[in-house]
Amino acid sequence: MLELIHFNILSVLLFSVGLYGVLARKSAILIIMAIELMLNAVNINFIAAAAFKHGGGLFTNFDGHILTIFIITIAAAEVGLALALILRIFRNKSTVNVDQFDMMKL
Amino acid sequence: MNMHLVIFSVISAVLISCALGVVISRNIVHSALFLLFALISVAGIYLVLLTEFLAIVQLLIYGGAIVIVILFALMLTRNEEYPRIQNNKLWPIAGILSVLVLITLSVSYFQSDVIRNASTTISPAGVKSLGSSLFTTWAIPFELASLVLLVALIGAIVIARSDKGGN
Amino acid sequence: MIGRMLSYQLLCSDLDTGATVRFMSDYFQDAVSTLISLLTLFSFLAVMVLSLVWLERKALGRLQLRLGPTRTGPFGLLQPIADAVKLVLKEDIVPNDAERVIFWVAPIIVVISAFMLWVTIPFTPGIVVENLENMGLFYIGAVGVIGILGLVLAGWGSANKYGVIGGLRAAAQLISYEIPLIMVLISVAIVTQTFNLVDIVNLQSPVPFVLVLPLGFVLFFVAGLAEVGRTPFDIYFAESEIVGGPFVEYSGAHWAVFFLSEYINTFAIATLTVLLFLGGWSGPFLPSIVWLLIKIYAVILLIFWIRGTLPRLRIDQLMAFAWKVMVPLSFYLVVCCSVYVFYEMPWWALTVMSLFGLLAVGVIIYRYITAPARKVAEVRERLRSLQMTQEE
User: Fold this and answer.
1) Residue of chain B whose Cα is closest to the Cα of A19
2) Which of C228, C306, C231 has the alpha carbon at shortest distance from C267?
3) Does a structural domain hold residue B109?
4) Which of C54, C236, C278, C294 is most buried by a 10 A CB count?
5) What pTM value is reported for the model?
6) ipTM, 2 dp
7) Which residue in B has a C-alpha nearest to residue C164's C-alpha?
């Protein structure tokens, strides 16, 4: 039978894969992709928790879904801004590798 | 045989393998393609959880807009390094760290009270009740989110526009 | 095997009433009937595409004072079949530098998204693969976006400068015009208070929505033209500028797939215009499906007429038109519809509000078109006054 723990484990797996991507990749765009994976892991967790919830208690049955909607909204804003920044840096440095973004180093 | 479990396992397998494809693939456009398939399988997971509304939102915002914007940025920042990309030199440490996070989180989930107290059936979320909750209890955060989107839109335009064409 | 389980109706269950209980055999019956209806849909769309190809060549020919196809079959009716056979028999060339996987996947993404759109479009209340009762309109808005990715990937994958430019243009254009399209869908949903396409058509029985939301009709039609890349908006594969854009390296069957999905999308936009604004299948005397087809073909002839008449826009004009005219007016339309619903006004009030928006579109387009003429007149005026001062 399908239970909450299945979704939690799936979400943890996805989160770790995304974390590996964020830490191991050099290209800023790939790091953004990995961050999207992590955000999706969190979303799966929220929705699973809301769907497997008993009635009553502090939170209603929709709070998980609504938090997910907000996360998706903020993710869209974040991707737009981050890619604009990357384009800007690419114009100055002609690279998108994060280890070369060291203009502030003395 | 449980139909739900089978569907869930198939979608999860696709999701995790596509996610691995995103972080392992050596070709950046292949990564973006894998990301698209991963995000679509997340929409499938939402369908298993009987939240059709969020599945379509996922398809629309992630599958459509975000992946296209990422592809757009890929094409605009093209140079000789593409499509071959390199990892950080310290990538084994990153792998160890993520495995540690994986183990820690899984163990804490298995020991958590929330899991034991959870219901065993999926309660579906109707669109109407979701909408009325969004526009009554969560009205102010909703408006703030729209403000955030507006600020991000203007900020992105200001940051990304070129200095030369400013007449 | 016979254990009871939760129903797993993709997207279509009325979830507010809770999940129902079903038997295993129901799944197989569902699967078989869905498969049959999908195959029927596929063959229907294939026939429609063939008819559209013939109609387009014939209508364009007449507009350009030609005859169009005449040799193959009576009135050239067999011409599309001859075209299809030619395309399939052509050599399918894959460039050496192309990303093979992406080159193969891109047409599939495009055609799948074109077909997925049709799953929920009803021809009559009975003839529909799966009428998504809670989600129909929303689903249509969401699935349309996926096809853009196929175009971008096709442009990238074919390792060609024109392809990449075309892909970038496609992404910019299609995302920009998706916003007014979805906003118009939302306004219709606000007025009708439902996402169900069958209900939306039934609500138009006294007054079709083209009279209630004239602005919505125009916005939807223009944005729809841009979404399928019909002629004033075909800059992302403009043959005379970027030699076919994302399709430049495709040939034979692959190119035929893009062609097929383009025509399916054109047909879908025409059908949606009819369903949302022109009263769908309702009409006197004739059976409903005949009325629907008559209306769809009228809209399609309008699209071909526009193609035969208007020149292509430039990319900056196109983006400016999307962001400075279409998007604000679609937001205005949403506000109008909300006001109309909130204060429970009579329907003609919405018509009046909507007409103001339409007037704004007309004025803006008129001033834009006449801008060069006004500039010339102004320069002449200044020149004349200069000459007069010199003579004095």
Assistant:
1) B98
2) C228
3) no
4) C236
5) 0.82
6) 0.85
7) B75
